Amino acid sequence: MASNSMSTGRRITSRLSYSFGAFGHDMFYATLSTYFMIFITSHLFDKSSSASNDKMIFYITFIIGALRIVELLIDPFIGNAIDNTNSRWGHFKPWILAGGTIGSVILAILFSNMLGLNESNPLMYLIVFAVLYITMDIFYSFKDVGFWSMIPAISFDSAEREKTATFARVGSNIGQNIVGVIVMPLVIFFSINKNSGQGDLRGWFMFAVTVGFISWFSAVIVAMGTKENDSLLRKNTEKTRLRDVFKVLARNDQLMWLSLTYCLYTAGIQITNASQLYYFTYIMGKPGQYSILMSINMVVGIFAVLTFPPLAQKFSRRNVFFACIATMLVAMLIFAFAGSNLLLVLIAAVLFYIPQPLVFLVVLMIISDSVEYGQLKFGHRDESLTLAVRPLLDKLGGAISNWVVGAAAVLAGMTAGATASSISTSGHVTFKLFMFGVPALLMLIGTFIFFKKVTLDEKEHAEIVDELEKTWHEHLETGGEESMQEIEKKVSATTTSYKSPIDGAYVNLADVSDENFSSGNMGKGFAIKPTDGKVYAPFDGTVEATFPTRHAIGLRSDTGILTLIHIGIGTVKMQGTGFVQYVQKGDHVKQGQELIEFWQPAIKKAGYDDTVMIVVTNFKDIKDFNYIKDAGDVTHGEEILNLSNPDNDDGQSTKS
């Protein structure tokens, strides 16, 4: 039990660290995607030259959009590079830390006039801006892909992924909203010129420095506090080649249809979100009240995130998605006619925000599940490459948003020197068309595609995981640090006494109701109808495989015997409920040491067979496979099999 307690402590630390990482990560993203454009359009240039300023705004927004479009071709290779990264810290942590450090420094520089370069040498400013922005965006991609790709590395179980992602989403919800709470107070606090509540360049620069530091510190916490769990299912026998990157993505039809849906959706919401501070500043004339909205969003967003697991369980992810879209469309309609009425604006904006973290989680879960979908369909697992799709689409949506919002601000006259009183009625109408009309159309088209084409749901994913688990014993035979030839040489002419791992009644393996075991596809061995829920090690050896559902375990004896102990039939669908695991992959165990404990009433209540199947998966490499007992009641520790390893005198293995 002590080892389990330690595991629980590590899990709590990991979740808290991951949540704080999401907090800092989304602070950074919200600053870049929502507030950078208002800095560019309203503060970077001297208000005395509106014509030249409009040209510079156009050039900058074009550069941002163009660079993000170009980077769409880079992001899949970023995911592939992370998949192929092997370090003592895992796949993801090096990239999270590097991306967090470099991105934070450049963010602060971008929120400045680069020592007046924007005015003294506009062309050089644009060149330096482009280089800095693409560098920051690439390293942000490494951090973003690495960060969110940790979810499928943590667990293969849909329910566990939902809990982990929900925990992180609470942190990200606070992060992205607290930026809105502090942005204007911080800008005003550090500004020399208050500028009618809009602040000045110094204020915006110090705001960016603050956000950059918090983002970097959160990356450090993730690197120090999280633990990437290893699993044989995550091992690929070959790496994805660069020339195959886009082929891997394109052949996963569920990933592609969901990507098209999310691209349209995220472009729509980013346009509206990025327009809200403009609305408070230039339509309501009260930018300071924007903090009220973001404070409310921060609180209600936490509750919205926490409702996702029960809502998804009761109504399904698809239904949650459709309900969220409907709510957001109603909110946009209210917002469009709210005018300067603060109460109506707050109601509409909050209704528009509440569904956003829920849609994010629906999309993230389906993309995560498409990892196994692609693995089962094509026989290759590509975690980071698949998860790279979401930040790629967020960037595309951000590029579209920057173009639309930049154009809306210029066309409506919401640039440097403008105030709410200087914006004309036609300017109001133009801005609202961009803020509400365009996003609504994009979201409706995306929802139609989701309805018609995206079919991967919780039930299908559970079936996929079940199929993958049935072949994990093959990974045991090829996994491990030693080859089978090395193992056979080491244990030449030795025997292994295989003890019963559980109390109960002996059952012939051919008589169990799971065809994969009864047919011998999973290996050669026996089964036990348990009278007790404790599973013990049948020999001295090493834990080679653990499962997220905790219903099975793979062991390698010190003499080279590979075995799989599988509790129940269909119990993978219980998603770990009623099972407690006391060891981890890589642990060395002694014969008789408790490995797993399960609650039989839970299995029976769920309607599943609790028969325990025990198979030797490398039985073909064993010279003599002798049954000491093949009927009656057995107790754990009682000898069931006597196995003789291959005689390697002639270098050959005798097959049974």
Automatic annotation (TrEMBL):
Q: Which residues form the PTS EIIA type-1 domain?
A: 514-618
Example GO CC term: the record gives: cytoplasm
- Kindly state which keywords UniProt assigns to this record, in alphabetical order: Kinase, Membrane, Phosphoprotein, Phosphotransferase system, Sugar transport, Symport, Transferase, Transmembrane, Transmembrane helix, Transport
Q: What is its main location?
A: membrane
Give the SUPFAM superfamilies listed for this entry. Duplicated hybrid motif, MFS general substrate transporter
Which membrane topology term applies here? Multi-pass membrane protein
List where in the cell it is found. Cell membrane; Cytoplasm
From the UniProt record, list the coiled-coil ranges. none
Q: Note one Pfam family from the annotation.
A: PTS_EIIA_1
Q: Which InterPro entries match?
A: Dup_hybrid_motif (IPR011055), MFS_trans_sf (IPR036259), Na/Gal_symport (IPR001927), Na/Gal_symport_CS (IPR018043), PTS_EIIA_1_perm (IPR001127), PTS_EIIA_component (IPR050890)
Which parts of the chain span the membrane according to its record? 27-45, 57-74, 94-111, 123-142, 174-192, 204-225, 290-308, 320-338, 344-367, 400-423, 429-451
Question: What are the protein's GO molecular function terms?
Answer: kinase activity; symporter activity
**What PROSITE patterns does the annotation carry?**
NA_GALACTOSIDE_SYMP, PTS_EIIA_TYPE_1
Say if the entry is tagged with keyword Transferase.
Answer: yes
Domain of life of the native organism: Bacteria
Q: Name one GO biological process term.
A: phosphoenolpyruvate-dependent sugar phosphotransferase system
Stated family: In the N-terminal section; belongs to the sodium:galactoside symporter (TC 2.A.2) family.
Checking PANTHER family in the record gives: PTS SYSTEM GLUCOSE-SPECIFIC EIIA COMPONENT
Instruction: Please give the name of this protein.
Output: Lactose permease
Q: Which organism is it from?
A: Lentilactobacillus parafarraginis
